[in-house]
Q: What sequence folds into this?
C-alpha cells in the first residue's frame, strides 16, 4: 500500500523555497546595481531609468541594451578569471553551494 502524501508539508516546503528564491533574486539585483555603478545615481533617477527601460517597446533599443549587458557580464567574468588565475592551488575546496553570477541558473 502506498504511503499517503503530506500535501501540507509539501506546500510549506515549496513556499519556503519560493521565499528563498525571491530573496536571492533581490540580493542579486542589488549586486547588479552596484556592479554596474548605478549605485551612485539618486534613487529617483535610477527608478526612472528602470521604468523607462521596462516600458520600452523599441526592439532595436532593447537589442543594443542586451548586447551591452552581455558584454558587461563577459568582461566581468574575464576579470574575475584574471584575478583568480594564480590562486587555484591555494583556494579552499568549496562545498558546491556557490551561487551563480547574476541571472545564472543553479542546478540545485
A:
Amino acid at each position: 500500500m502506498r504511503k499517503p502524501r503530506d500535501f501540507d508539508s509539501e506546500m510549506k516546503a515549496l513556499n519556503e523555497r519560493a521565499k528563498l528564491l525571491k530573496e536571492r533574486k533581490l540580493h542579486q539585483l542589488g549586486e547588479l546595481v552596484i556592479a554596474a555603478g548605478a549605485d551612485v545615481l539618486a534613487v529617483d533617477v535610477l527608478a526612472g531609468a528602470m521604468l523607462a527601460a521596462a516600458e520600452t517597446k523599441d526592439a532595436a533599443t532593447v537589442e543594443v541594451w542586451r548586447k551591452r549587458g552581455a558584454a558587461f557580464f563577459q568582461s566581468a567574468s574575464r576579470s574575475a578569471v584574471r584575478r583568480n588565475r594564480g590562486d587555484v592551488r591555494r583556494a579552499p575546496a568549496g562545498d558546491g553551494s556557490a551561487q551563480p553570477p547574476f541571472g545564472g541558473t543553479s542546478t540545485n
About this structure: The chain has three helices and no strands. The helical segments are 7-35, 43-55, 59-84.
